[in-house]
Amino acid sequence: MDTLSGLRSDDEKHLSLHSTKCPVTVAAMLPVLAVHGGAGHVPKERAEISCAGVRDAARAGYAILRAGGSAMDAVVEAVTVLENNPAYNAGRGSVLTRHGHVEMDAIVMDGRTLASGAVSAVKGIANPVQLARLVMEKTSHLCLTAEGASEFARAMGIQEVPEESLITDYARMRWRKNLQPDANPVECQMGKMGTVGAVAVDSEGNIACATSTGGMLNKMEGRVGDTPCIGCGGYADNKVGAVSPTGHGEAIMKVTLARLILFYMEQGKSAQEAADMGLAYMKERVEGLGGVVVVDPQGVWAARFNSLQMAWAAAQNDQLHYGLYAGEDFSQPIEQPEQNSQ
Ligand code: ASP
């Protein structure tokens, strides 16, 4: 089991103070934001692009938090940055369906009110996460799908984009490869770049999550994965914390992974312990692999996965932490400029 948690040696001191509810120490842990760029197997030549992208997204979300912005604004911004980055399986860069189309899923959740919004199998828009937020804010529903989601996007004045603009050469190459009669579907899924997600706690203690994906490679048309399903592809509750998962959607749905991890936290487990327990249960019970980013209300974060890799980054106390492989935790000051990030 990998990898890291916001609970480090100097945080242990903070944590003991948390248990005595010291407001000064809690304030020092907030705000915080953690993002992931998908669990799986990132090909070697794409590893650095994948890490740079999550660092960019973490910086963008954290800048909003540092300026006093809300956790919801921060997670939507971080996920928008990742959707716009063709290195990830979300927005531009999404994987293709069996028939070669892009159908995207996204969710947001506000831990203050438990309000949530999602879209599934939506086509022809650049930023499904922003449409999911509009579903939350402007409708009485939790999820809109397919043509209904597109109609709603038009009504909200969201610009339609040509499908071609969402499809990268890499996505098309992998789609073709997976259509070959001798294709190994497991191997093909492993090569895929990731779904994206973010969790955050703002300076007011409000918590939010957002997740966005193109889904599984060569999925059937109309397939709805875990991402837009509340409690599976994301959950946020100010009283407990927030989770954004990635991995095999059908497995995540069977164990309602996001809510399962928060349940373990309600039982007194730390963010890291709860993440490990949820991922271990999914592996043992339904043979599912994946990863998560998690935060708790005090600002303790964790980035954990049982897949080979998961690009992740977390920002707290003006420090940026990131990693891709098991056991990695690189860190640098948050303002350090990114070189060759695309
Ligand atoms: N969970 C996503 C889905 O099944 C895929 C992923 O996270 O890589 O749609």
Automatic annotation (TrEMBL):
Its EC number is 3.4.19.5, 3.5.1.1. Gene3D superfamilies: (Glycosyl)asparaginase (3.60.20.30). The keyword Hydrolase applies. The active site is at residue 195. One of its GO terms (molecular function) is asparaginase activity. The keyword Hydrolase applies. GO terms for biological process: L-asparagine catabolic process via L-aspartate; proteolysis. It comes from the Eukaryota. Substrate binds at residues 223-226, 246-249. The record marks 194-195 as: Cleavage. It is an enzyme of class 3 (hydrolase). Keywords: Autocatalytic cleavage, Hydrolase, Protease. Belongs to the Ntn-hydrolase family. This is Isoaspartyl peptidase/L-asparaginase. It comes from Megalops atlanticus (Tarpon).
